[in-house]
Model the fold of this input.
Amino acid sequence: MLFLQVSDTHLGASRPGKLRERELDFYDAFNEVVEIAIREHVDAVIHAGDFFDEPRPTPQAYLFAYKALKKLRDRGVDFLIVAGQHDQPRISQLPPLRVLGEMGLIRLLAQDNPETHIIKTRSGELGVVAIPYLSPVKIGESLRNIRVPETSKRILVAHLLLKELNIPNAHASLAELSADKYSYVALGDYHLKYETRYRGVLATYTGSTEALDILEALSDKYIALVDLSTSEARVNWVKLNTPRKWFRVEVRNYRELLDNISKITLEKYSKTPILYVTLKGRLNDIETRRIRDYVNKLISEKKILVGRVEVEEGEESRLTTRSALFEATSSSQTLTLDQVVFSVLGDRELAEIVLALLKSSESVEDVKLVVSRVLEDEKLIGKIKRLVSTK
Amino acid sequence: MNSRPIGIVGETSTPVEITVKATHPVPAGTYIYLKFRVRDPISSQDLIREVVGVIGSVSFKSHTPIMSSTTSSAMSEFSESYISDLKRESYMNAVIIADITNRRAESPRYPPPPETPVYPASREHLVEVYKSSPESCVKIGNLLGFREIDIGVNVNALAKHLLVVGTTGAGKSNFVAVLADRVAQIGGSVVVFDVHGEYRGLQSESPSVHVVDYEAVINLVKTPVDMLVKFIIPEAAATKQRRILRKALSSLNDKIQKIAVENRIPYSEAVKRLYSDEKKRRSLPQLENPTEIYRELLESEVRIRASSDERRYEDVLDKIEDFFEWHLVGLDTPNVSEIVGCGKIVVVDVSALIDSEKDYMLKVVAEDLLWSLKQRRIPPTMLVVEEAHLFISSKTQTWSKESLQRFIREGRKFGGMLVIVSQRPRALDPDVASQVQNFVLLKLVQRSDRVFITEVSDVLSEEYVNILPALSPGQAVILGEWIGKYPALVNIDLHRGKRVGATPNIIQAWRVKLREISEITKTKSPSSEWGDV
Done:
């Protein structure tokens, strides 16, 4: 019995930068997963939650999901899934996975509460305990009443954070999940690849298929081919090739940034990389501007897709705190308020004051007031008109 | 009084102890009732007192010498002549438990006069003595001989801890299962330190209780550095070695924690990252297992500090090697305190560890729980220690003893309740045992065990101790603040959800094995199909 384990596909996400390219990245990764499943002739794909990025997926996310899942269905590959918190609407609304279930594209194992299933696969029966995302408070209650199936092969599929991960707000430990009662434990919600054992039973997170932030982007992305034909589950990790490359460089000044970038061959990647620059301390305005200009140049030369500059503020209980200085994208599709205000006013400090005013406004009236004051200036209107016409 | 007396009070009596003479003895543990008149010498008033008690030791005595020649005619199995009843008499000792005059239980103050008839006690006599309030009590069984009288224990009083003793098979682990389960059912938090793995697979009687099987390992990053140092270098005299190791451990664990926190990754992954960074700088072996990597990193931390005194560093390295060879260690395993919670029984399975590791682990668990209790991070928790004589021994010094002593001393203020379970109480350290104020005494045969119990308990009269050898499995004398003023003889409820622990069926196991072997031999070997070619 062979299955492909995946989780946290976050279809519809477009971080960072809300870029179309980024949205397509997540679809690319999922397409690669589908290809592997077909190529390896797996009995089923098991998805451990967070299929969509949000409980109200966009039409394009739905359409993409339909096309990709149909390929699997046409090849007779089952798609089993538990809901993650991103698949769970917070208001009264139909969960998106229910739609895909109705269409016969997926088998939704658990949406709101743990469920026990016995799945008939091409290679025999598989008992599955499925735990969807539950709040850390609620999960204790639910774990008491889980019924472990009596089948010879049985797995636990759960969308939760293990206490073993040593991160705040974890849900449960493998001991509390009675992991030793299963042949294998497939987990979702944590975005990095992680494997551990409890009483000899293997438990893994495959992690996300495409990075949502810099911390998960620095390691490679994987899916797992899980072989249950022997008494002990065996995992074959398959590295995904489609995810976009991210870089983080830590520099003290503009010169160091140039040095660091020259060591990276940005052009060799099929997808334009994403660049994060961490400044080891605050720099003066001139130096900051040079860095900003350089990052913008990289974007306009299409050497990077997104550039973000952060500054290290200090250390707090072992954690280095960083604050964002600015983030730039190939803004061909989008024009942000920040960019407009910056361009109109020219002066950075003035722009920041206006932006702060606009963003802290509590009523529409205040915003109108700020805008009208700015617009009373004839020259400013002219500038905005010219800007809009050029874009 | 509608029942017939079972005997009369003998020559001597005190307010709390009497002898009973009878033609026929009654079983030890029988509850008795007496009603008698006493005269108050000051007011010259006659008072009627009613008391209840329980039969302790029981004996038979013949008044005539027994000679085989004279009794040879009566060597049939049962001699039923009326004479024989006259020739012999039964002597029994009994303790008076309570004065129940006017249906109000209080301590007995008057000795019953000799020749007072002794009756078997009825339900009505005993309910007043053994009424428990349902809010603060959990039921653990019934009064011996009275199925309708429930015996509950006050869990609040467990802050003064509990000692459970009894021979093998007397029902200790059944009692622990009942107590743990019932405490968890009212929302309690329980940790069972399971030395033999007999609580693994424990099933609660109630769906509201979550039983967690926890496999114990020593967490290299979460365990305080000072404790780790003691684990790796147990010799307290090796202060210089310890200093080197402490520095190495602190430095390494700091790096690991920083990487883990910054990258939001577990310690095992942080160790891997740290190692791959190190490997860029110098040549290191290719390792996959995070604990092996940790060991390699720790050893290099020690080596970095090696300068003047080469030999001492070598000694530290040897001890690290020994430690990793003999101890079950991990990096990501949550501590017990991260798992305990209301309505939960956490079974800490240490059956796979060797004795010294069990000792270490008990220390880790006790200190972790006490620390978390002090920090108010966990609810009041009951810690059950099986085979306690291994850890709280009067003869040998153990790691866990000091931690358990502290748990007993300081636990009561913070909601730490210790349940000490042992089949060899005489081996327990009296200093620890004497701090316990609640007792469950199951069948105990060895005299020295019973003497020990009498010595450590201020509340136990010798008569109760005399009952102990005659108890059946599952019967117990319960005393201490948690049961109230009056000790009780109790039939402990049978816990249905405990599968292992009961003596295994060896013959059945042999039969199954034999059948398996015969199945295998029956199937043809591949070569046999060829026959004679």
